[in-house]
Design goal:
The structure holds 2 protein chains of 2 kinds.
Chain A: H1 2-11, H2 21-57, H3 63-66, H4 69-82, H5 84-116, H6 118-133, H7 140-147, H8 151-175, H9 179-187, H10 192-230, H11 235-244, H12 248-280
Helix pairs in contact in A: 4-12, 5-6, 5-8, 5-10, 7-8, 8-10, 9-10, 10-11, 10-12, 11-12
Chain B: E1 5-17, E2 22-34, E3 38-42, H1 49-57, E4 64-69, E5 72-73, E6 81-84, H2 96-100, H3 102-106, H4 112-124, H5 140-152, E7 158-162, H6 170-187, E8 190-195, H7 198-204, E9 207-211, E10 218-223, H8 233-236, H9 240-257
Classes of the chains: A mainly alpha, B alpha/beta.
The complex binds adenosine-5'-diphosphate and magnesium ion (MG).
Magnesium ion binds near residues 50, 86 and 162 of chain B.
């Protein structure tokens, strides 16, 4: 959608341009469809929310298990006025960012070490494959025992879910760099460190950005699971706590806030990706 | 005038080892190339031409035999040897200027003067307006010119050119041959040009060496002489001698193009 919107802006004729009537008609139709799609999207959302509220007020559904939009909104407003809202959001976002930054950096670093030593990359391969194949969240209890029921255990969880994937993605990217681009640098007598910094890393930037994109989502999963297990704060804590005390409005509020957080993080990363692509100029 | 040997190749063998097989790429190759000579090496594809250049460049170690440049055994790539690969391999994340100074950067010789020289060279080659463009925006011929500047930036006195025109269309190719021939003559460097195009070999060089099918060795060595010295690569194609040389080399490639018999 963002892509085609950009195209549209490029295609928009400057005043007094020489576009043919057919082309202008094509552009008009395109614009009309775009408006229709946007309106329909909002309408669907509105119907869902209003329908939910109406069914609750008519008591056709049991609000004890489904809650209702007005109450969810009430919970969010109340958390906002007590200052809890930003606190819980901040905790979850902070843990996620810590997890994904450390997971990505650590993963790239390990990939570099493996690239540096073919002996160790061949040796490590089965270990990495096995570690990658276990569901990382199963390691949660281990982190709790080792690190305690605290924020460190949550961040460790967030790192674990993203680091191995990063190693695999980035190391594969390193190996896919054109041999001849490396050969070219070697004709100038380049050292291994120069091959790394002047060809291998820059050529792999698209892969690394792709890993970052995947990692944001994975780290959020790790963080929420970590919060389920040990937290006293954060969206994961709100959701689990709400479930335990049968406060469905709190659970729903937590889930909706989580949706907003993941959308926001995804948006930021997409912007980062676009910036990276711009600086490479194709 | 006694010519100084520049490159001396003595009893050279090169074998590649893979899990499945051993590939004998070069077998007992002997060759002396003299200072300021422009030598072309022609041979069927897969006969070991690129391997030979990589060995001279110090990117590979011979299985047997020796290669000396200026009397010294090659152990690692020398700053005085420039190597142009079969394609430009410009880095798409660097501008043309940043690509052209890559060698200087690696050798730690990037400074305002050397950058200025590279800019002048790019400008001479008609790339003045593209210094800050990315390779994707340039045509094949322009990209190969940029690659040439990148090689010449280190001021090598021995140039190894591996089919530098093979990826270009015919017209661009003739133009670049002409241009490169002129530049290299002016600079007076020793040049080894690898190609499978006989006409290109004859028109650009003083000497044509013919290699056999893999495992490659040298089967003929021609010093080209003309009654009226042609002024350029294109002019060579117009000389009365051109046809004769072409036919001879063509015949030699035919005779040695098939699988070599075990000796
Ligand atoms: N790295 C390598 N590993 C194994 N075999 C190789 C390698 N490089 C080249 N060869 C083989 O050596 C032979 C000569 O290759 P090359 O020097 O590239 O030939 P040319 O440049 O004359 O076409 C070919 O049969 C090729 O398959
Ligand atoms: Mg070749």
């Amino acid at each position: 959608m963002a892509e085609s919107e950009k195209n549209f802006r490029v295609l928009s004729p400057p005043a007094g341009s020489a576009f043919s009537p057919e082309h202008l008609q094509y552009l008009r139709r395109w614009k009309r469809d775009r408006i229709l799609i946007t309106v329909t999207r909002w309408a669907i959302l509105l119907i869902l929310v209003l329908g939910w509220e109406a069914l609750a007020r008519l008591e056709w559904i049991n609000t004890f298990v489904t809650s209702q939009p007005s109450r969810v909104w009430g919970v969010i407003v109340q958390m906002y006025s007590s200052g809890e809202l930003w606190y819980h959001l901040g905790v979850t976002v902070g843990e996620t960012i810590a997890g994904f930054v450390l997971g990505t950096l650590g993963g790239v670093l390990i990939a570099i070490l493996l690239w540096w030593s073919p002996f160790w990359s061949r040796t490590a391969e089965p270990f990495i494959v096995v570690i990658n194949s276990i569901p990382k969240v199963a390691l949660g209890p281990i982190f709790i025992v080792w690190l305690g029921t605290n924020i460190q255990a949550i961040v460790a969880m967030a790192i674990t879910v993203s680091i191995i994937v990063t190693v695999l993605m980035v190391f594969t990217g390193f190996q896919e760099v054109d041999e001849n681009k490396i050969k070219l640098l070697r004709t100038f007598g380049a050292t291994k460190a120069q091959v790394l910094t002047k060809v291998v890393l820059p050529a792999t930037i698209p892969t690394i950005v792709g890993a970052v994109k995947v990692n944001v989502g994975l780290s959020l999963v790790g963080t929420i699971v970590g919060e389920f297990l040990v937290a006293k704060a954060g969206l994961g804590f709100l959701i689990v706590y709400g479930g335990q005390v049968f406060n469905m409005s709190l659970v729903m509020a937590g889930v909706i806030l989580l949706m907003l957080v993941s959308t926001l993080l995804y948006y930021v990363v997409t912007r980062l990706e676009a910036a990276a692509q711009m600086s490479r100029a194709r | 005038m006694v010519k100084q040997p520049k490159v001396v190749i003595n009893g050279l063998w090169m074998t590649y080892h893979t899990l499945k097989e051993e590939i004998h790429a070069i077998m007992d190759l002997n060759l002396i190339i003299y200072e300021k000579e422009f030598v072309s090496i022609v041979g069927p594809s897969g006969c070991g031409k690129s391997t030979l250049l990589s060995l001279i460049a110090g990117l590979l170690r011979p299985s047997r035999g020796s290669i000396t440049v200026d009397g010294k055994e090659i152990r690692a790539p020398l700053p005085s040897v420039g190597y142009m690969l079969q394609q430009d391999y410009l880095y798409e994340w660097r501008t043309i200027l940043q690509n052209a100074v890559l060698g200087l950067e690696v050798r730690g010789r990037k400074n305002p003067q050397s950058i200025k020289r590279v800019i002048d060279q790019l400008t001479d080659m008609g790339l003045g307006d593209f210094l800050h463009s990315y390779p994707g925006q340039l045509s094949g011929g322009m990209r190969q010119r940029a690659a040439l500047v990148r090689t010449l930036a280190l001021e090598p006195d021995l140039l190894l050119l591996d089919e530098p025109f093979s990826a270009l269309d015919y017209q661009t190719r003739l133009n670049l041959e002409e241009e490169l021939g002129g530049i290299l003559h002016r600079l007076g460097r020793t040049v080894i040009l690898v190609t499978h195009d006989i006409a290109e070999a004859i028109s650009m060089s003083d000497r044509v060496v013919v290699m056999s099918q893999r495992p490659g060795t040298i089967v003929a060595d021609h010093r080209l002489d003309y009654a009226n010295n042609p002024s350029s690569a294109l002019a060579v194609r117009e000389t009365p001698e051109f046809g004769g040389y072409f036919e001879t080399i063509w015949k030699e490639l035919q005779d040695h193009g098939g699988e070599r018999k075990k000796l």
